[in-house]
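Design review, sub-item: ligand-bound model
Attendees: FS, YL, KQ
YL presented the inputs for the adenosine-5'-triphosphate complex:
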Amino acid sequence: MRQSQLFTKTIKEAPKDEVSVNANLLTRAGFIYKNSAGIYSFLPLGWRVIQKIASIVRQEMNAIGGQEMFMTALHDKHYLQATGRWGVDVVFKVAEAGKKEPTFNLSWTHEEIISEIAAKYINSYKDLPFSVYQIQTKFRNEPRAKSGLLRGREFLMKDLYSFHTSEKNLFEYYDLVAKSYKKIFERCGLASVYTLAAGGDFTLNNTHEFQVLCDAGEDTIYVCEKCGYSENKEITKLEDGVECPKCGGLIKEKKSIEVGNIFPLGTKYSEAFNLKFSDENGVKKYVVMGSYGIGLGRVMATIVEKFYDEKGIIWPKEVAPFQVHLIEIKSSAKKIYEDLIKAGVEVLYDDRDKSAGEKFADADLIGIPIRMVVSEKTLKEDSVEIKERNKKETKLVMLRSLASELEAKLLS
Ligand code: ATP
Ligand code: MG
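KQ shared the predicted structure:
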Protein backbone atom coordinates (compact mmCIF):
# COMPACT_ATOMS: atom_id res chain seq x y z
CA MET A 1 0.00 0.00 0.00
CA ARG A 2 1.28 3.43 -0.94
CA GLN A 3 1.04 5.72 2.05
CA SER A 4 0.19 8.66 -0.21
CA GLN A 5 -3.05 6.81 -1.00
CA LEU A 6 -3.91 5.90 2.59
CA PHE A 7 -6.93 8.03 3.41
CA THR A 8 -6.06 8.42 7.07
CA LYS A 9 -3.27 10.58 8.39
CA THR A 10 -1.52 10.59 11.71
CA ILE A 11 -2.59 13.17 14.26
CA LYS A 12 0.00 15.01 16.35
CA GLU A 13 -2.07 16.02 19.37
CA ALA A 14 -3.54 13.51 21.76
CA PRO A 15 -7.34 13.35 21.42
CA LYS A 16 -8.90 15.42 24.23
CA ASP A 17 -11.63 13.00 25.17
CA GLU A 18 -9.56 9.82 25.49
CA VAL A 19 -7.90 8.78 28.72
CA SER A 20 -6.64 5.31 27.78
CA VAL A 21 -3.29 4.62 26.12
CA ASN A 22 -4.86 2.31 23.55
CA ALA A 23 -7.50 4.78 22.32
CA ASN A 24 -4.98 7.57 22.36
CA LEU A 25 -2.33 5.86 20.26
CA LEU A 26 -4.75 4.04 17.96
CA THR A 27 -6.58 7.30 17.24
CA ARG A 28 -3.42 9.32 16.66
CA ALA A 29 -1.95 6.68 14.39
CA GLY A 30 -5.16 6.41 12.34
CA PHE A 31 -6.34 2.92 13.32
CA ILE A 32 -9.70 3.81 14.88
CA TYR A 33 -12.26 6.58 14.96
CA LYS A 34 -14.51 7.21 17.93
CA ASN A 35 -18.12 7.73 16.83
CA SER A 36 -19.54 7.87 20.37
CA ALA A 37 -18.38 6.80 23.83
CA GLY A 38 -17.44 3.12 23.60
CA ILE A 39 -18.32 2.98 19.88
CA TYR A 40 -15.44 2.87 17.42
CA SER A 41 -15.00 2.45 13.68
CA PHE A 42 -11.97 0.54 12.44
CA LEU A 43 -10.07 2.48 9.78
CA PRO A 44 -8.00 0.67 7.11
CA LEU A 45 -4.92 0.21 9.33
CA GLY A 46 -7.03 -0.87 12.30
CA TRP A 47 -9.13 -3.23 10.24
CA ARG A 48 -5.97 -4.95 8.99
CA VAL A 49 -4.98 -5.64 12.60
CA ILE A 50 -8.46 -6.96 13.43
CA GLN A 51 -8.27 -9.22 10.36
CA LYS A 52 -4.88 -10.54 11.49
CA ILE A 53 -6.27 -11.35 14.94
CA ALA A 54 -9.40 -12.87 13.35
CA SER A 55 -7.26 -15.02 11.10
CA ILE A 56 -5.29 -16.41 14.06
CA VAL A 57 -8.57 -17.04 15.90
CA ARG A 58 -10.08 -18.81 12.87
CA GLN A 59 -7.03 -21.03 12.35
CA GLU A 60 -7.03 -22.13 15.99
CA MET A 61 -10.81 -22.57 16.20
CA ASN A 62 -10.84 -24.64 13.00
CA ALA A 63 -7.96 -26.72 14.40
CA ILE A 64 -10.18 -27.86 17.31
CA GLY A 65 -13.09 -28.67 15.02
CA GLY A 66 -15.02 -25.39 15.32
CA GLN A 67 -17.32 -24.74 12.35
CA GLU A 68 -17.67 -21.07 11.49
CA MET A 69 -21.14 -19.62 11.08
CA PHE A 70 -22.79 -16.22 11.45
CA MET A 71 -25.81 -15.48 13.61
CA THR A 72 -28.14 -12.50 13.73
CA ALA A 73 -27.55 -9.31 15.67
CA LEU A 74 -31.25 -8.49 16.15
CA HIS A 75 -33.02 -10.88 18.51
CA ASP A 76 -36.71 -11.25 19.21
CA LYS A 77 -37.45 -11.05 22.94
CA HIS A 78 -38.62 -14.68 23.24
CA TYR A 79 -34.96 -15.74 23.27
CA LEU A 80 -33.92 -13.89 26.40
CA GLN A 81 -37.32 -14.42 27.99
CA ALA A 82 -36.80 -18.18 27.72
CA THR A 83 -33.82 -17.95 30.08
CA GLY A 84 -35.06 -15.04 32.18
CA ARG A 85 -32.39 -12.70 30.78
CA TRP A 86 -34.65 -10.12 29.05
CA GLY A 87 -34.24 -7.90 32.12
CA VAL A 88 -30.41 -7.91 32.18
CA ASP A 89 -29.33 -4.27 32.45
CA VAL A 90 -26.58 -4.20 29.80
CA VAL A 91 -28.97 -5.41 27.07
CA PHE A 92 -29.78 -2.79 24.42
CA LYS A 93 -33.48 -3.04 23.53
CA VAL A 94 -35.19 -2.01 20.31
CA ALA A 95 -38.84 -1.26 19.49
CA GLU A 96 -40.34 -2.46 16.21
CA ALA A 97 -41.85 0.03 13.77
CA GLY A 98 -45.14 1.34 15.12
CA LYS A 99 -44.56 -0.04 18.62
CA LYS A 100 -43.64 1.81 21.77
CA GLU A 101 -42.42 -1.12 23.86
CA PRO A 102 -39.21 -2.84 22.78
CA THR A 103 -39.70 -6.42 21.57
CA PHE A 104 -36.20 -6.96 20.20
CA ASN A 105 -32.70 -6.67 21.59
CA LEU A 106 -29.29 -6.20 20.00
CA SER A 107 -27.04 -9.25 20.35
CA TRP A 108 -25.14 -9.21 23.63
CA THR A 109 -24.41 -12.97 23.55
CA HIS A 110 -25.78 -15.91 21.51
CA GLU A 111 -26.38 -18.91 23.81
CA GLU A 112 -30.15 -18.66 23.34
CA ILE A 113 -29.96 -18.24 19.57
CA ILE A 114 -27.59 -21.16 19.01
CA SER A 115 -29.52 -23.43 21.40
CA GLU A 116 -32.74 -22.94 19.46
CA ILE A 117 -30.97 -23.55 16.14
CA ALA A 118 -29.15 -26.64 17.46
CA ALA A 119 -32.45 -28.13 18.72
CA LYS A 120 -33.56 -28.33 15.09
CA TYR A 121 -30.62 -30.55 14.08
CA ILE A 122 -29.68 -32.68 17.10
CA ASN A 123 -31.60 -35.90 17.61
CA SER A 124 -29.22 -38.62 18.57
CA TYR A 125 -25.97 -39.11 20.43
CA LYS A 126 -24.52 -39.69 16.97
CA ASP A 127 -25.00 -35.98 16.22
CA LEU A 128 -22.68 -35.07 19.13
CA PRO A 129 -20.24 -33.63 19.99
CA PHE A 130 -19.78 -30.60 17.76
CA SER A 131 -18.82 -26.97 18.08
CA VAL A 132 -19.63 -23.82 16.13
CA TYR A 133 -18.27 -20.31 16.32
CA GLN A 134 -18.74 -16.88 14.84
CA ILE A 135 -17.01 -13.52 14.79
CA GLN A 136 -19.76 -10.99 15.21
CA THR A 137 -20.76 -7.70 16.81
CA LYS A 138 -21.98 -7.63 20.38
CA PHE A 139 -23.76 -4.70 22.00
CA ARG A 140 -23.61 -4.04 25.71
CA ASN A 141 -24.80 -0.95 27.50
CA GLU A 142 -21.61 -0.69 29.53
CA PRO A 143 -21.75 2.03 32.16
CA ARG A 144 -17.96 2.54 32.13
CA ALA A 145 -16.99 2.97 28.49
CA LYS A 146 -13.82 4.97 29.09
CA SER A 147 -11.06 2.53 28.28
CA GLY A 148 -11.11 2.74 24.50
CA LEU A 149 -11.33 -0.63 22.79
CA LEU A 150 -10.92 -2.42 26.10
CA ARG A 151 -14.57 -1.80 26.95
CA GLY A 152 -16.82 -0.97 24.03
CA ARG A 153 -20.57 -0.64 23.99
CA GLU A 154 -20.32 -2.20 20.55
CA PHE A 155 -17.48 -4.68 19.99
CA LEU A 156 -16.41 -7.70 17.98
CA MET A 157 -16.42 -11.04 19.74
CA LYS A 158 -15.48 -14.53 18.69
CA ASP A 159 -17.93 -16.80 20.43
CA LEU A 160 -17.68 -20.57 20.28
CA TYR A 161 -20.41 -22.93 21.51
CA SER A 162 -19.90 -26.65 22.08
CA PHE A 163 -22.44 -29.47 22.48
CA HIS A 164 -21.86 -32.77 24.28
CA THR A 165 -23.50 -35.96 25.54
CA SER A 166 -21.90 -35.73 29.00
CA GLU A 167 -20.13 -33.43 31.40
CA LYS A 168 -17.03 -35.57 31.02
CA ASN A 169 -17.02 -34.98 27.29
CA LEU A 170 -17.64 -31.26 27.82
CA PHE A 171 -14.67 -30.91 30.17
CA GLU A 172 -12.37 -32.74 27.76
CA TYR A 173 -13.27 -30.20 25.10
CA TYR A 174 -13.08 -27.34 27.62
CA ASP A 175 -9.44 -28.20 28.26
CA LEU A 176 -8.77 -28.34 24.54
CA VAL A 177 -10.29 -24.89 24.08
CA ALA A 178 -8.18 -23.61 26.99
CA LYS A 179 -5.02 -24.79 25.20
CA SER A 180 -6.20 -23.26 21.97
CA TYR A 181 -6.88 -19.91 23.69
CA LYS A 182 -3.41 -19.86 25.21
CA LYS A 183 -1.96 -20.37 21.75
CA ILE A 184 -4.15 -17.66 20.19
CA PHE A 185 -3.00 -15.08 22.75
CA GLU A 186 0.63 -16.18 22.40
CA ARG A 187 0.43 -15.72 18.63
CA CYS A 188 -0.92 -12.22 19.33
CA GLY A 189 2.17 -11.56 21.44
CA LEU A 190 0.31 -11.88 24.76
CA ALA A 191 1.21 -14.12 27.69
CA SER A 192 -2.04 -15.06 29.42
CA VAL A 193 -2.77 -16.30 32.92
CA TYR A 194 -5.44 -19.01 33.20
CA THR A 195 -7.55 -17.73 36.07
CA LEU A 196 -10.32 -19.33 38.07
CA ALA A 197 -13.33 -17.01 38.04
CA ALA A 198 -16.91 -16.85 39.21
CA GLY A 199 -19.57 -19.12 37.80
CA GLY A 200 -23.26 -18.33 37.99
CA ASP A 201 -26.77 -19.62 37.51
CA PHE A 202 -25.89 -20.58 33.96
CA THR A 203 -22.69 -22.54 34.54
CA LEU A 204 -21.88 -25.93 36.05
CA ASN A 205 -19.29 -24.44 38.37
CA ASN A 206 -16.51 -21.90 38.09
CA THR A 207 -15.49 -20.42 34.77
CA HIS A 208 -11.97 -19.59 33.59
CA GLU A 209 -10.64 -16.31 32.34
CA PHE A 210 -7.54 -15.57 30.32
CA GLN A 211 -5.94 -12.58 31.99
CA VAL A 212 -3.07 -10.51 30.65
CA LEU A 213 -1.05 -8.80 33.37
CA CYS A 214 -1.29 -5.06 32.77
CA ASP A 215 -1.58 -2.03 35.03
CA ALA A 216 -4.25 -0.57 32.73
CA GLY A 217 -6.50 -3.57 33.45
CA GLU A 218 -9.74 -3.34 35.41
CA ASP A 219 -9.39 -6.79 36.95
CA THR A 220 -7.40 -7.86 39.98
CA ILE A 221 -6.08 -11.39 40.13
CA TYR A 222 -3.89 -13.41 42.49
CA VAL A 223 -1.17 -15.34 40.72
CA CYS A 224 1.43 -17.77 41.98
CA GLU A 225 4.93 -16.64 41.02
CA LYS A 226 6.10 -20.23 40.87
CA CYS A 227 3.40 -22.36 39.18
CA GLY A 228 1.18 -19.66 37.64
CA TYR A 229 -1.97 -20.81 39.44
CA SER A 230 -4.42 -17.92 39.58
CA GLU A 231 -7.79 -16.84 40.97
CA ASN A 232 -9.83 -13.71 40.28
CA LYS A 233 -10.37 -11.33 43.19
CA GLU A 234 -14.15 -11.72 42.70
CA ILE A 235 -14.10 -15.23 44.12
CA THR A 236 -10.86 -15.79 45.92
CA LYS A 237 -9.77 -16.08 49.51
CA LEU A 238 -6.16 -15.60 48.42
CA GLU A 239 -4.26 -12.46 49.32
CA ASP A 240 -1.01 -10.84 48.33
CA GLY A 241 1.92 -12.67 49.91
CA VAL A 242 0.15 -15.89 50.96
CA GLU A 243 1.26 -19.40 50.01
CA CYS A 244 -0.02 -20.90 46.77
CA PRO A 245 -2.60 -23.60 47.57
CA LYS A 246 -1.25 -25.70 44.67
CA CYS A 247 2.53 -25.55 45.06
CA GLY A 248 3.43 -23.51 48.15
CA GLY A 249 4.93 -20.72 46.01
CA LEU A 250 4.32 -17.02 46.62
CA ILE A 251 0.94 -15.48 45.62
CA LYS A 252 1.08 -11.95 44.19
CA GLU A 253 -1.73 -9.48 43.55
CA LYS A 254 -1.76 -8.13 39.97
CA LYS A 255 -3.84 -5.85 37.77
CA SER A 256 -4.93 -7.52 34.56
CA ILE A 257 -7.12 -7.45 31.47
CA GLU A 258 -9.59 -10.27 30.76
CA VAL A 259 -9.06 -11.12 27.10
CA GLY A 260 -11.01 -14.38 27.08
CA ASN A 261 -13.53 -16.27 29.17
CA ILE A 262 -14.67 -19.89 28.94
CA PHE A 263 -17.84 -21.27 30.51
CA PRO A 264 -18.88 -24.86 31.24
CA LEU A 265 -22.60 -24.21 30.80
CA GLY A 266 -24.16 -27.57 31.51
CA THR A 267 -27.84 -27.94 30.57
CA LYS A 268 -29.42 -24.60 31.53
CA TYR A 269 -29.82 -23.45 27.93
CA SER A 270 -30.71 -26.87 26.52
CA GLU A 271 -33.49 -27.08 29.11
CA ALA A 272 -34.80 -23.66 28.08
CA PHE A 273 -34.87 -24.63 24.39
CA ASN A 274 -35.71 -28.32 24.73
CA LEU A 275 -32.38 -29.29 23.25
CA LYS A 276 -32.28 -33.08 23.73
CA PHE A 277 -30.64 -36.15 22.24
CA SER A 278 -31.41 -39.87 22.59
CA ASP A 279 -28.56 -41.88 24.06
CA GLU A 280 -27.50 -45.44 23.01
CA ASN A 281 -30.51 -46.86 24.89
CA GLY A 282 -32.98 -44.43 23.35
CA VAL A 283 -33.26 -42.41 26.54
CA LYS A 284 -33.82 -38.68 25.95
CA LYS A 285 -31.32 -36.42 27.69
CA TYR A 286 -30.45 -32.74 27.67
CA VAL A 287 -27.39 -31.73 25.66
CA VAL A 288 -24.47 -30.47 27.78
CA MET A 289 -23.07 -27.18 26.50
CA GLY A 290 -20.03 -24.96 26.80
CA SER A 291 -19.43 -21.39 25.61
CA TYR A 292 -16.17 -19.57 24.99
CA GLY A 293 -15.53 -15.89 24.16
CA ILE A 294 -12.69 -13.67 23.00
CA GLY A 295 -13.03 -9.94 22.38
CA LEU A 296 -11.09 -9.06 19.23
CA GLY A 297 -10.98 -5.32 19.85
CA ARG A 298 -10.04 -5.92 23.47
CA VAL A 299 -7.15 -8.13 22.33
CA MET A 300 -6.01 -5.38 19.96
CA ALA A 301 -6.21 -2.79 22.75
CA THR A 302 -4.36 -5.07 25.16
CA ILE A 303 -1.53 -5.48 22.67
CA VAL A 304 -1.21 -1.68 22.47
CA GLU A 305 -1.35 -1.30 26.26
CA LYS A 306 1.50 -3.83 26.55
CA PHE A 307 3.68 -2.75 23.64
CA TYR A 308 4.28 0.97 23.22
CA ASP A 309 6.85 3.60 24.02
CA GLU A 310 6.92 7.41 24.05
CA LYS A 311 6.94 7.42 20.24
CA GLY A 312 4.06 5.08 19.52
CA ILE A 313 2.85 1.52 19.09
CA ILE A 314 5.17 -1.52 18.76
CA TRP A 315 3.14 -4.27 17.01
CA PRO A 316 4.11 -7.92 17.46
CA LYS A 317 4.83 -9.48 14.05
CA GLU A 318 1.77 -11.65 13.56
CA VAL A 319 -0.77 -8.89 14.18
CA ALA A 320 0.99 -5.87 12.65
CA PRO A 321 -1.01 -4.10 9.92
CA PHE A 322 1.97 -4.48 7.57
CA GLN A 323 5.24 -6.37 7.92
CA VAL A 324 7.50 -3.68 6.50
CA HIS A 325 7.35 0.12 6.48
CA LEU A 326 9.36 1.14 3.45
CA ILE A 327 10.43 4.78 3.55
CA GLU A 328 12.03 6.66 0.70
CA ILE A 329 14.05 9.79 1.37
CA LYS A 330 14.87 12.05 -1.57
CA SER A 331 15.04 9.03 -3.87
CA SER A 332 12.71 6.36 -5.19
CA ALA A 333 12.01 3.04 -3.51
CA LYS A 334 9.44 2.09 -6.16
CA LYS A 335 11.43 -0.81 -7.58
CA ILE A 336 12.16 -2.23 -4.12
CA TYR A 337 8.47 -1.83 -3.22
CA GLU A 338 7.41 -3.76 -6.29
CA ASP A 339 9.96 -6.51 -5.64
CA LEU A 340 8.82 -6.87 -2.03
CA ILE A 341 5.17 -7.10 -3.10
CA LYS A 342 6.13 -9.75 -5.65
CA ALA A 343 7.90 -11.66 -2.89
CA GLY A 344 4.64 -11.63 -0.90
CA VAL A 345 5.74 -9.16 1.77
CA GLU A 346 3.09 -6.82 3.21
CA VAL A 347 4.49 -3.33 2.75
CA LEU A 348 3.37 0.16 3.65
CA TYR A 349 5.35 2.32 1.25
CA ASP A 350 5.92 5.89 2.39
CA ASP A 351 6.10 7.61 -0.99
CA ARG A 352 4.88 10.95 0.42
CA ASP A 353 6.59 14.24 -0.12
CA LYS A 354 7.55 14.76 3.52
CA SER A 355 10.70 15.28 5.53
CA ALA A 356 12.67 12.32 6.85
CA GLY A 357 11.85 13.44 10.37
CA GLU A 358 8.10 13.42 9.74
CA LYS A 359 8.27 10.04 8.05
CA PHE A 360 10.25 8.49 10.90
CA ALA A 361 7.90 9.94 13.51
CA ASP A 362 4.89 8.51 11.66
CA ALA A 363 6.59 5.13 11.31
CA ASP A 364 7.30 5.04 15.05
CA LEU A 365 3.71 6.02 15.86
CA ILE A 366 2.16 3.42 13.52
CA GLY A 367 4.53 0.77 14.83
CA ILE A 368 5.17 -1.63 11.94
CA PRO A 369 7.85 -4.16 13.06
CA ILE A 370 10.45 -3.49 10.33
CA ARG A 371 11.40 -0.05 9.03
CA MET A 372 13.29 -0.01 5.76
CA VAL A 373 14.84 3.24 4.59
CA VAL A 374 15.95 3.96 1.05
CA SER A 375 17.99 7.09 0.46
CA GLU A 376 20.68 8.30 -1.92
CA LYS A 377 23.23 7.17 0.63
CA THR A 378 21.89 3.61 0.90
CA LEU A 379 21.39 3.29 -2.85
CA LYS A 380 24.99 4.29 -3.45
CA GLU A 381 25.92 1.15 -1.53
CA ASP A 382 23.25 -0.99 -3.26
CA SER A 383 21.57 -1.39 0.06
CA VAL A 384 18.71 -0.36 2.36
CA GLU A 385 18.81 0.57 6.01
CA ILE A 386 16.81 -1.70 8.28
CA LYS A 387 15.63 -0.97 11.81
CA GLU A 388 13.30 -3.03 13.94
CA ARG A 389 10.68 -1.03 15.85
CA ASN A 390 11.57 -2.67 19.14
CA LYS A 391 15.34 -2.17 18.74
CA LYS A 392 17.64 0.82 18.59
CA GLU A 393 20.29 -0.21 16.11
CA THR A 394 20.08 0.21 12.35
CA LYS A 395 21.77 -2.02 9.83
CA LEU A 396 22.66 -1.69 6.16
CA VAL A 397 21.53 -4.69 4.14
CA MET A 398 22.62 -5.31 0.56
CA LEU A 399 19.67 -5.43 -1.84
CA ARG A 400 20.65 -8.86 -3.04
CA SER A 401 20.47 -10.31 0.47
CA LEU A 402 17.26 -8.47 1.36
CA ALA A 403 14.99 -11.49 0.84
CA SER A 404 16.93 -13.76 3.18
CA GLU A 405 17.34 -10.97 5.74
CA LEU A 406 13.59 -10.31 5.77
CA GLU A 407 12.75 -13.96 5.98
CA ALA A 408 14.97 -14.31 9.03
CA LYS A 409 13.49 -11.20 10.70
CA LEU A 410 9.87 -11.99 9.91
CA LEU A 411 10.13 -15.57 11.10
CA SER A 412 12.21 -15.00 14.21
P1 ATP B 1 -16.06 -7.91 31.59
O1 ATP B 1 -16.05 -8.65 32.90
O2 ATP B 1 -14.73 -7.37 31.21
O3 ATP B 1 -17.16 -6.91 31.49
P2 ATP B 1 -17.51 -10.11 30.61
O4 ATP B 1 -17.01 -11.15 31.53
O5 ATP B 1 -18.84 -9.52 30.82
O6 ATP B 1 -16.41 -8.96 30.47
P3 ATP B 1 -17.79 -12.08 28.56
O7 ATP B 1 -19.25 -12.18 28.44
O8 ATP B 1 -17.04 -13.10 29.30
O9 ATP B 1 -17.42 -10.63 29.10
O10 ATP B 1 -17.22 -11.86 27.09
C1 ATP B 1 -16.19 -12.64 26.50
C2 ATP B 1 -15.05 -11.77 26.07
O11 ATP B 1 -15.50 -10.66 25.28
C3 ATP B 1 -14.31 -11.12 27.22
O12 ATP B 1 -13.37 -12.00 27.74
C4 ATP B 1 -13.67 -9.93 26.53
O13 ATP B 1 -12.51 -10.32 25.81
C5 ATP B 1 -14.71 -9.53 25.52
N1 ATP B 1 -15.55 -8.42 26.01
C6 ATP B 1 -16.54 -8.47 26.92
N2 ATP B 1 -17.10 -7.28 27.11
C7 ATP B 1 -16.45 -6.43 26.29
C8 ATP B 1 -16.57 -5.04 26.01
N3 ATP B 1 -17.48 -4.30 26.61
N4 ATP B 1 -15.73 -4.50 25.09
C9 ATP B 1 -14.80 -5.25 24.46
N5 ATP B 1 -14.65 -6.56 24.69
C10 ATP B 1 -15.45 -7.15 25.58
MG1 MG C 1 -15.97 -12.58 31.20
